[in-house]
Queue: 4 jobs
Job 1
Amino acid sequence: MLNINNNAAQIKREILVRIAKLQLQGKLEEGVHYIPREMAPKGSEPLGCCIYHDREILRMRVMARLGCSVEEYDDSKKLAEYAKEAMDRDAPTWPMLTVLDEACNACVKSHYMVTNACQACLARPCMTNCGKKAISIERGRARIEEEKCVNCGICMQNCPYHAIIKIPVPCEEACPVGAISKDENGKERIDYHKCIFCGNCMRECPFGAMMDKSQLVDVIKHIMSGKKVVAMYAPAIAAQFRAAPGQLESALVKSGFSRVWEVAIGADITADKEAVEFEERMKEGHKMMTTSCCSAYVRAVKKHVPALVPCISDTRSPMHYTGELAKKADPDCISVFIGPCLAKRREGLDDEFIDYVLKK
């Protein structure tokens, strides 16, 4: 798993902070144009081939943080125009993920490679255990014939020197449902008919090419307009901050939210309802019941394991019930769920009680 403390994640955070500051100052449209230049100033060490290419990629990253799809990128269009579109839209746009081709490394197909650690040993377990006879010894080292290799990994498992390694395609490797593959140009594409929006590809891509479209601009817009915007934070968010009880809630109120709900209250409702439902199902003769809390799991079952669909609980998620409580308390409020999971953003699009989802 790619550690979240990395350069790609830091760039994402910096862009979001810059956008938020500009918007709160009322200068988003006039100032967003300068973000790429400020983050990649003249004379700085380029991350890619040159500083100007870095700025172009940063322009597209800013687009995604504004909630726009980079697939619709037009280099003749100013970032101010994209910012205006973000400020004018009424709801988040589909899809929630966007792929930045310019950042995609077009990683070579996943394969196994023999390193210098190979000793061309007498036992040669890599050769003897290869069912496709894809390994030979040449110039004192094992060699894998790509034409014969089926990427089973048996050679790597049997090498006593750990001299054979797997070169993965991180996003494809991370996807549990095979929703990511290369197009004719070697770039990665997401098949949304298969995708369960687990967010693994976005987390594992070391080039930050898989991006979520932020809804931060939308939320700030409603706060600044004077609407009652309520925050509903997942317990996982609270656990990430070393704060005394009440500090996180106070910080969210200070940020402009009119009221703060901890989604643990929705979790209690879910637990109670699931317990009753489980008891009823067991009495009816059901063999098992699975949770409905994780929208990625529910989507995975519906798309890829339909035989398990009858086993899914009919109880809604903690986010749903907390949103319902918030809307009952104030029907005119704008409800914003804050959590670490991309799947919740997808769930929020279909939930009548959730207006926006901010991903930590």
Note: The chain has 16 helices and twelve strands.
Job 2
Amino acid sequence: MTQPVTAVSPAGTPDDADLSLMLTIRAFELKLLDLYGKGLLNGTTHTCLGQEYIPVAIEGLLDPRDHVFSNHRGHGHYLARFRDPAGLLAEIMGREGAVCAGVGGSQHIRRDRFLSTGVQGESLPVAAGVALHLKRAEPGRLACVYVGDGTFGEGAVYEALNIASLWALPLLVVVENNGIAQSTPTARHLAGSIAGRAAAFGIDHHLIGTSDVAEIRRTLEPLVARVRSRSTPLVVEFVTRRLGPHSKGDDTRPAGAVQALREQDWYAWCAAACPGRFPRLDAEARAHIDAVAAEVTARGPSRWVQS
């Protein structure tokens, strides 16, 4: 039986740049839920509320020439890499200036060396294939793939880990273990542990239980450097929290359980620890996303969506 692991409060607070980016991602995700509530968005979306610090920390360890593979809960991954809320919102809304002309929507984004997909487990074998190419053609570059604990129910994950280990591929697997897969607690769908699964393939595993961005980077920097220099895979598992529903309004958890997670959230901790700069940066992030949303909403539809 999988044993629950408790995330701990960070020892330090992010610098202004990192905190601003985390708050921007938070504001973006909240704005999406607000737009859906007003009937201004269609389809579905999966927010990363509570997990914003992970892509912010990881992006600081990546090179623009690295490949990043995201998933259905990938807005934070995209925003940490490109700082482009307008392009992403236009994509989700099907407006002019959309990243993928409005045909990818919330889950399926392709830009430069970034790719997201809503297909569970699909990105890991693709990332392994790209890592093989990088090993042969671009030594020193790596493929970074974000997955969740629920994705470990897919067989393609194990096939990809097997190949990555056998062929010594420069593959960084970032596991955002938020303790729940859609509406099923991790302890009810995952026997053993993610560390045990990595060990079964001879792959190094590192557990991160803090949301301190600087500490995360200090810890992972030599490990990620080894992925590059030795061309070997690494699994980094983050113990994190999903504050929002799986999608827009399908949260079956008791309100008290969600509130307990909010009280442990990086947002609440940073607000208390940074009473001087936090309100200013938070207000700036919200105002920026409000302005982006107003401007994108006023745009005409993408020609592909229109046709």
Note: Residues 16-37 form the longest helix (22 residues).
Job 3
Amino acid sequence: MGLLLAASGLGFFATAGAAEIGFAAARTRALTSAPDVTLAERRAELSQVDVRIAAQRPNPGASFTTARRTAKLGTSVSVPLQVFGQRGTAVDASRAEARAVTLDITATKREVLWSATTAWIDLWETQQRAKLLGLSSEDSQRLLHIAQEKLDAGAGARIDQVRARADRVRAEAEAGAARRAIDAAAARLAVWLGAAPEAPLLATGDPGYRVEAVPLDTLLRALVDHPALRRDRAQIEAAIARIRNEKRQRWPLVNAQVTFNNNDPTLPGDDVIVGLGLELPVFSNREGNIARARAEQTLATAATQSDLQRLGSGLLDAYRRTEGERLQFLALREKALPAISEARAMTSEGYAMGRIDLLRVLEAQKALLDTRLAVAGANASWARAVADLERAAGVDLGPGGLDAH
């Protein structure tokens, strides 16, 4: 599937100490090392703490009093009792929220996978461009050497030597600029791998997607289980649980009170007083809290509908683009590149034998470079389209993903 070049290795742009990372390795590392994943995991841990907080029971209270004419010591103990299910609904609401936050980890990983994949493809394409321009620079140098030999032997024109020298300078400048662009692309990838932006990176291998197309029906069936939609549905359930909880919290707490009066001269002995206290919902009936929970449910429902529409549209868009990019890539690689390569070899041989002028050689050389760049660009564009398709469908389309297609 990858681009076959006349030269192999990373010699054109190798950086001392650069870490080489392949397509699959970059994707795997991003899922565990990207800062966004770490933040999502920390939020999930925090939500579990909220469940523990909701499960806490209110503390009892104690008071001590004394009087000049009655009891010398009055001891009171009150115990709040959540006898109307307030604690249970609070725990249920916190657990529903924690489930939504936990599912957000999977949705975040899907976004991180897309970001790391496209960043790796950008670096790979930049390297391919640098490699091809390096090959072109070498071709220009060889052509200048031939032109110089023919001029020295009296079989060539001075203008050919000048034109070949100018073409070599141009090719070297383009190759140098392309090599410097690699560091910029590596910095964009580094953040998704949890590496320092200045860390030198090199993408090895080719984009690891299968060339075979995936049936659209298969992707549409997978869409319903998209991580973002699962998170959205969990957020709706969490909002409903909050509504139930807020309604339940309107029920009053029951305070069981026990008072022990000791050494009261007005009584023949010690006295024990037992009673119950209730909160009176006079000034607040939690209507504001309930209204907010209902608004959150409405928002979560709207977000689910929006995500479903966005993902469905994105899936169809990416699928059509994938089809077009795939056909273009295969046509350029399988048909155009071999023909242009053959034409380039024929013109070079003809120029060396004096049958073809330099201009034809330069044109053929430029055509070969443009075609090679087009193949690399089409490969990268097709891989980006597949990455967009992965993102929209919420599935893995790499080797072994989606039941190996």
Note: The domain at 19-393 is CATH 1.20.1600.10 (Outer membrane efflux proteins (OEP)).
Job 4
Amino acid sequence: MAQRRVLMVVTNHDQITPEHPTGLWLSEFTEPYILFREAGYDVTVASLRGGAAPIDPRSLPESAGDAVALAIKQLEATARLSDVDTSQFDAIFLPGGHGTMYDLPASEHLGRILVSFYESDRVIAAVCHGPAGLLGATLADGTPLVKGKRVTGFTNEEERAAGFDTLMPFLLEDRLRELGAVYVGAPMWSDHVEQDGRLITGQNPQSSTSAAKAVIEALK
């Protein structure tokens, strides 16, 4: 069997307000990245603009082992998404972080890529705020990709507990429901993954490893 290829798409957006820097939530990237590499996958890390990806400072570990440090290194020079031949990948994975709430939903290019993965029966996965990237994906008949799909993502309750509910451009749970998704939430900070066919979503940072393992299982 040919080596599996996974495309990880991360945010370029680096602030909620000047007082609240943001970006990628680090563990939502590093945990899946390490698991994909351990599974023998070829992993490409991209962002909409390319270049260095911002990391939410609240998610930085006090110390990092070799595997985490190697994963972080991949964020220093991400590929520009428009330069990537996405037809060559078996799965796409969208890590979260509050930055994703700003740039990923607005990207028509990302939306088209996600639809191409869906229409070719490839794996689509996202964790925490990463499912915000799914919001801009619309099928040819005008139907939102998530309509009728069982999904999860960062809950309204978790957003309130984090203190960012009034600062977000929208609440992810609400927007997924508005687009017709069958949203399934678990108690705050639960390790919770939903899978609907080859669409895999994790609720929060605690779900990152489980979401990645679901991708690995789906690619077997």
Note: DSSP finds seven helices and eleven strands in the chain.
